[in-house]
Design a protein that fits this description.
heterodimer; A: mainly alpha; 16 helices; about 70% helix; globular; B: about 425 residues; alpha/beta; D-Maltodextrin-Binding Protein, domain 2
């Protein structure tokens, strides 16, 4: 009430004597605005990301069992233990297999979906939503559906029922690791969950490709279909593809939920995070070794990300245009 | 349209209000459910894993409410890995004052559980001596046993008759009859999806122990290796129910006719009785080798007091009140929901529900073949043994190699615990 009147009065007087001036001056200052907008985020980042990382670093040099405030310094013993631990090193291998498979498949599937949806003349919004919807489903919920109804090992599980029509015996999808059917379960669950999101990214990128390029290509004699896709669409999607692959790699590194819920008490199919959880945070409560493992993993993720950025030119999007 | 533009709710204020709400919500969420918020007098938090039987949660809350000296709130943990949840919560300020678990020495060595000798000592003679022994380290008693839960096989008598088979006493016989009992609709045997419920009994039935008296490895014997090889054969035979919707602590697979034999615990008896009438019986884990003996795992749950809690004395008082003094509640807890054997002789004597039929047979198996927890066998060692089963029963690793790997892990733990 009174504020509005003061403001109206103060404005023409260039506010020399106005008490509101310093505040508005502060508000106008770019530095203040910078901190105003990034501050909460940075505080969160410091408290929830950097502080735990530093704490882990400290813990990793201590014998920290059943405590996060240890006092027995052990130097690099935890690092030596984790690096010579078959399970942890093996889990890095598991991750590589998983990433090598899931990244290209999701990339191809979401690009394919995007191309299909983008070509639709009608009901485009409907299909876009339908394919995007699984993104909103939690990994835990999806894992339970996959585990208990689709890939259940009993005769009335969906897949076993279908196989039963062809006279094939029941398969214990998630229990018996020979042959490793559990990969089928994990990969299909993840594909279903995440393809829709990346499809949206690709659709946005597809809509950004100027029509003139296609017209020019057509005039130059490029055949519609494969040739146009290979020489126009794909190169134009380069920046988006790189970003998608990077995001997929990070997501694969962070894989935990569906592995944890689908594969309980196994020694196989364990990505690094699950290995760390079991070895350190879960039942063994060895925070020293766990922190050492976490830092090894962090260093690896940084290295791979930087390397990938260098190879694929992420962040150089503007120049490559 | 004009109504909208006249509205005081411009975008900014709505956004601001929404952010304020979100922040308040976040703060409220942080503050809730610690059990320390307000209330008169002292407040205590107790943590339980979710029991499967109807009415158990209400019962625990009812007992807590009847306690006048403090305001006791209950955390009822439904997550599948109660251990992980408990262990990590114990490191924080939100740790429960009182919690149920099994006796494990690392919790004593790291000073997480309080010495309860003074509250148990006066009634020590009334407790099953094995339940006192399994909670004792260096003459101090660290937990109050609430219930003993023997675990064994439950089988369908009618299916046995139809297939013309008898109750097995050796592992070979168990494998044989599992094959005979398997039909296109019913699997012969269910021992859980991960098979880990019989880890301990296999060791005992092969005539071995987990650890020696001096806390050295005693499970790595030829008998155990032979047992693991047989289990691998059973696993690949097609006679095991695998990938069932419920875990084996839940009797549903047996009740719904998915299997003819299921490994489960005494607690499931009322549910099985309801579903199957008299068409069921029980038998212990069979002999693995000639030198072995049939065995039963006497599991169970005990009450512990968090030694690092803020109200250790009040927590001890509460544990004494409920699990030592209130015999009526103890009896209710042991026999009104699932069946459990009360660890106190005076209560076990009066538990009429456990005096007849299969329940009486369960008590007999508990006394005759039962083995209790070894307090030196910790969760990390359990996990190492579970890995052995994953590696050489579900996967095709050589049992010797799998046990060697387990030895390394167990020795690392033993070294840390006993030097």
């Amino acid at each position: 009430m009174s504020t509005t009147t003061t403001r109206d009065l103060a404005r023409p007087a260039s506010a020399k004597a106005s008490p509101a001036k310093p505040r508005r001056g502060l508000r106008g200052s770019p530095t203040f605005n910078f901190w105003l907008f990034t501050g909460p985020f940075l505080i969160g980042l410091a408290i929830f990301v950097y502080a735990p990382i530093l704490w882990s670093l400290w813990l990793s040099f201590f014998e920290a069992r059943f405590t996060v405030t240890p006092d027995e310094f052990v130097g690099f013993e935890n690092y030596a233990y984790m690096l010579t631990n078959d399970d942890f090193v093996g889990s890095l291998g598991t991750f590589t297999v998983f990433a090598a498979f899931i990244v290209p498949t999701t990339w191809a599937l979401s690009l394919g979906l995007a191309l299909l949806v983008n070509r639709l003349r009608f009901m485009r919004a409907f299909f876009r939503s339908v394919f995007f919807l699984p993104t909103a489903v939690s990994y835990v919920a999806a894992s339970l559906i996959w585990k208990m109804s689709i890939f259940s090992g009993v005769r009335f599980g969906l897949m076993n029922t279908v196989l039963g029509w062809f006279g094939i015996d029941n398969i214990a999808w998630l229990i018996d690791p020979n042959p490793p059917w559990y990969w089928l379960v994990i990969v299909t669950a993840r594909l279903w969950l995440q393809s829709g999101f990346y499809m949206i990214l690709f659709i946005a990128a597809l809509q950004n490709i100027p029509d003139e390029l296609y017209e020019a290509a057509a005039i130059d004699g490029a055949k519609p279909g494969w040739q146009t896709f290979w020489y126009i669409t794909l190169p134009q999607l380069r920046a988006t593809s790189t970003a998608v692959i990077l995001l997929l790699l990070v997501a694969a590194y962070q894989a935990f939920d569906e592995f944890f819920n689908l594969l309980s008490k196994t020694t196989w199919g364990r990505p690094p995070l699950m290995e760390l959880y079991y070895k350190a945070l879960g039942e063994s409560q060895d925070y020293g070794a766990g922190s050492a493992g976490a830092l090894i993993l962090t260093v690896l993720i940084c290295a791979v990300t930087l390397l990938q950025g260098k190879l694929m030119g992420f962040g150089r999007g503007d120049e490559s245009k | 349209m004009s109504a909208m533009s006249n509205s005081n709710w411009d975008r900014r204020s709505v956004l601001r209000a929404a952010m304020g709400l979100a922040a308040a919500g976040g703060l409220a969420a942080c503050g809730s459910n610690t059990g320390r918020a307000g209330g008169s007098g002292k407040t205590l938090v107790q943590m339980f894993h979710a029991y499967g039987e109807a009415g158990t949660e209400q019962a625990i809350k009812k007992y807590a409410k009847a306690y006048k000296e403090a305001n006791v709130t209950t955390q009822w943990i439904t997550s599948a890995d109660f251990e992980s949840k408990l262990f990590s919560t114990l490191l924080t300020d939100n740790a429960p004052d009182v919690f149920e678990f099994h006796p494990q020495i690392q919790m004593i060595k790291s000073g997480q559980v309080a010495d309860l000798t003074d509250i148990i000592e006066p009634v020590k003679d009334d407790f099953n001596p094995a339940d006192i022994q399994s909670h004792t380290v260096d003459g101090k008693i660290y937990g109050v046993r609430m219930i003993d839960d023997p675990q064994f096989f439950f089988y369908r008598k009618s299916m046995f008759e139809e297939a013309g088979v008898d109750v097995p006493t050796t592992l070979d016989e168990l494998m044989e009859i599992s094959a005979k009992l398997t039909t296109s609709k019913v699997k012969g045997l269910y021992i859980g999806n991960d098979l880990h419920n019989v880890n301990d009994t296999l060791i005992w039935s092969a005539g071995a122990q987990h650890l020696t008296e001096n806390n050295e490895i005693a499970y790595h014997t030829d008998g155990v290796v032979e047992g693991l090889k047989k289990m691998r054969k059973l696993f690949t035979s097609g006679d095991l129910l695998l990938g069932a919707p419920t875990e084996s602590w839940d009797p549903s697979s047996l009740n719904q006719g998915l299997c003819a034999i299921q490994f489960c615990g005494m607690w499931a008896m009322p549910q099985i009785q309801d579903a199957l009438g008299d068409d069921w019986g029980i038998f212990p884990f069979p002999k693995v080798t000639d030198s072995g003996k049939q065995s039963v795992y006497n599991g169970g749950w005990s009450m512990f007091v968090n030694a690092k809690g803020k109200n250790v004395e009040a927590a001890k008082e509460y544990v004494k009140w409920l699990w030592i003094d209130q015999k009526e509640y103890q009896e209710d807890w042991a026999t009104s929901y699932g069946f459990h054997i009360p660890p106190r002789a005076s209560l076990a004597k009066e538990a009429t529900k456990l005096k007849s039929g299969n329940a009486a047979e369960g008590v007999r198996l508990f006394n005759e073949f039962g083995h209790f927890d070894n307090i030196g066998w910790t969760q990390a060692m359990r996990t190492a043994m579970e890995d052995v089963w994953a590696n050489c029963v579900r996967k095709d690793m050589d049992p010797e190699a799998a046990l060697d790997k387990c030895d390394t892990a167990v020795n690392r733990e033993l070294k840390k615990l006993f030097g």
